[in-house]
Automatic annotation (TrEMBL):
It comes from Morchella conica CCBAS932. The keyword Oxidoreductase applies. Pfam families: BBE, FAD_binding_4. It comes from the Eukaryota. Residues 116-297 form the FAD-binding PCMH-type domain. This is Putative alcohol oxidase.
């Protein structure tokens, strides 16, 4: 069974609208596994034949921890790897976000309870070519089955999963081609890389590095580079220098709802190109590849810096002073192309790491010198180490620690430079309220203006262009806690912490890939002024709305019932 709570809360407004509409007409729902309309075994077998035996029936990876498949050794091993993205991204169904996995089949619940499919997809097509995708779309249309586009399963908002769904799984589209001098339809004559939809960050970085190049990708290198990451914007340690991931795209290849494999660039299907470049994954079509700018590699200096307090009232004040000082300095860093991930909670602040692509050690040290002097002046304990690396990849591999998954609930907001500089008191008060009540904040410092990005014409949320801090608030999650705690924590994020951030930056927005799934007014917050235009493009390429993903463009026309069934909302 799907967990009733999150869907019920997510869709309260939509559900109300639907209720009033439902009195006159029956809601139009996708066929659910318990419905008589669900495809027969023979139907599924026929699909399997069409896709050359590449149809997978979901067996959740957690099934080894539950009767009747319980296997003590395998279960223990899974408990050990459950927080490693690789445990999930190699699976055709597993997802990382606890609110969506919802303990329906996880390694930490009572082994005598059954393993349930819950929000996991029922079937997945292990895609090798566009025809597999077209077959999946055709089947979903013919049988009125919910369709999901799945790549790695990293999505925090549950966009790559769905109860009773068929997934097209793009993970094995791993082709990478290097293009030394791009000559396609774009204002770009430099090098480029064509990346299959299943290529992950680490594969793209290694390939680029072997040609003396770098490409913009995430700090977590298991994220799929051409999937939800780039389509939703994509932040990167290189982005204060080159722009967001979506700003790098020269061309997409995509299978649209009519089953056609299309090219989308500035000349061909330019509306689709515009939408896919920042307008969010999982809703306009299934991308099979993207071609992105490759940048000549540069010397990269990078730092780790941590300062702490011992909990005494005096030190706590000093620690917040240092945090405020750091925030005031960030425009100096980001204007030089630097970027940082700032991880902080009561008692500890870490630049984990600070990244200066194109900056020598001396240049970076000069930028951080005032902060270091401030820490000395405040007599706060700190550690600091700036290192210069010959390439982006060598810096990346040394500096980015393993990122665990399934360890928290998330929310957040983009905080513009103007707010940081002109409403310092408001910012400090909001942050302090959040930190003092138990959040671990992951914050990204970056300023990817249009100028930095080379004036691309795309659907990136405009608030990114003014951004200084992408604040991501998290509440740590304990595997053995009941799901009710996860939902309660998510509610705190929506109603208290995100509300405090909304108040200081009401006209900004939220990064759709690192957001609260229950963000009110997600249309405005995730897509800004682009929403209406994106919806028109969605309707043009997917008139039957075969693609649905929670909080994606057009998703407000649907609701997920408590049972997990997907229905039109009115
Ligand atoms: C540990 C961790 C670290 C992260 N680090 C970063 C980071 O550094 N920077 C950053 O910006 N974000 C980061 N994210 C967020 C990340 O961008 C999102 O989770 C993103 O949705 C992942 O995309 P994916 O394709 O890998 O994942 P999935 O969960 O498989 O898919 C996400 C969405 O994209 C859609 N999609 C996937 N493939 C395709 C396709 N081929 N065609 C059309 N739609 C598709 C899916 O339908 C879904 O809507 C991180 C997330 C995690 C869990
Ligand atoms: C699809 O066919 C292959 C090859 O015959 C088989 O191994 C696989 O189990 C089938 N998938 C399903 C869902 O039946
Ligand atoms: C999916 O297909 C790839 C080849 O494209 C293969 O290597 C892999 O084992 C398949 N995965 C599953 C789970 O069948
Ligand atoms: C990937 O590359 C191989 C070898 O060049 C090619 O045969 C195949 O068609 C490519 N696959 C896709 C999906 O482009
Ligand atoms: C491409 O370059 C031309 C000429 O320099 C310029 O007029 C145009 O605005 C550019 N377009 C984009 C999308 O960058
Ligand atoms: C500083 O960091 C670099 C890179 O991680 C490491 O090689 C070096 O040993 C560190 N120096 C100190 C003094 O910790
Ligand atoms: C999680 O909760 C259990 C039981 O309440 C407790 O024993 C354990 O220490 C907690 N783990 C963490 C990491 O907080």
């Amino acid at each position: 069974m799907a967990p009733p709570r999150p869907t019920a809360r997510l869709l309260t407004l939509a559900a109300l609208t639907a209720l009033t509409a439902a009195t006159s007409s029956t809601p139009d729902c996708r066929c659910f596994p318990t419905d008589p309309c669900w495809p027969s075994p023979a139907d599924w077998a026929a699909l399997n034949t069409t896709v050359s035996g590449r149809l997978l029936a979901t067996v959740p990876i957690g099934s080894v921890c539950h009767a009747p498949n319980y296997d003590a050794e395998k279960c223990k091993a899974l408990q050990g790897t459950w927080h490693d993205p690789a445990a999930h991204d190699e699976s055709s169904s597993s997802i990382m976000a606890p609110v969506w996995a919802a303990q329906s089949c996880d390694p930490f619940t009572d082994p005598s309870t059954p393993c349930e499919l819950g929000n996991y997809v029922r079937y997945a097509i292990n895609v090798t070519e566009p025809a597999d995708i077209a077959a999946g779309i055709a089947f979903a249309k013919e049988h009125n089955v919910r369709l999901v586009v799945r790549n790695t399963g990293h999505d925090y908002l549950g966009k790559s999963t769905g109860a009773g769904a068929l997934a097209v799984w793009t993970h094995h589209l791993k082709n990478i081609t290097y293009i030394p001098a791009y000559s396609g339809a774009a204002n770009w004559t430099g090098a480029a890389m064509k990346l299959g939809a299943g290529v992950q960050g680490f594969e793209a970085y290694r390939a680029a590095d072997s040609y003396g190049m770098s490409v913009v990708g995430g700090e977590c290198d298991t994220v799929g580079i051409a999937g939800g990451y780039t389509q939703g914007g994509g932040h990167s340690a290189l982005m204060s220098r080159y722009g967001l991931a979506a700003d790098q795209v020269l061309e997409w290849e995509v299978v649209t709802a009519d089953g056609k494999h299309r090219v989308a660039n500035r000349k061909k299907n330019s509306d689709l190109y515009w939408a896919l470049s920042g307008g969010g994954g999982g809703t306009y079509g299934v991308v099979t590849s993207m071609t992105v700018k490759a940048h000549p590699d540069v010397v990269t200096s990078a730092a780790r810096l941590t300062f702490t307090h011992d909990g005494s009232a005096e030190m706590v004040e000093k620690w917040y002073d240092a945090l405020d000082f750091f925030h005031q300095m960030t425009p100096l860093y980001t204007d030089r192309g630097a970027f940082s991930v700032n991880v902080y909670f009561t008692g500890s602040f870490s630049l984990g790491p600070w990244f200066g692509p194109g900056l020598t050690k001396a240049e970076s040290e000069e930028l951080l010198a005032p902060l270091v002097a401030k820490l000395d002046e405040l007599e706060l304990p700190y550690t600091y180490n700036m290192t210069e690396f010959p390439s982006y990849l060598s810096a990346f591999n040394d500096m980015f620690d393993y990122i665990s998954v399934g360890i928290a609930q998330y929310g957040g907001r983009l905080i513009p430079r103007k707010t940081v500089l002109e409403n310092r008191e408001g910012l400090n008060k909001a942050i302090r309220g959040i930190v003092d009540t138990g959040s671990l904040i992951f914050e990204v410092t970056t300023h990817p203006t249009l100028e930095v990005a080379g004036y691309p014409n795309n659907a990136v949320l405009p608030a990114w262009r003014d951004n200084e801090l992408n604040i991501v608030v998290t509440i740590p999650w304990n595997d053995t806690a009941p799901m009710s705690k996860a939902y309660a924590d998510q509610k705190t994020i929506t109603n208290v912490w995100d509300a405090a951030l909304r108040e200081i930056a009401p006209d900004s927005g939220v990064y759709m890939n690192e957001a609260d799934p229950y963000e009110p007014n997600f249309q405005k917050e995730f897509f800004g002024v682009n929403y209406d235009r994106l919806l028109k493009i969605k309707d043009k390429y997917d008139p039957e709305h075969i693609f649905y993903a929670i909080t994606a463009v057009g998703s407000d026309r649907w609701m997920v019932e408590d049972s997990g069934r997907l229905c039109r909302s009115g």
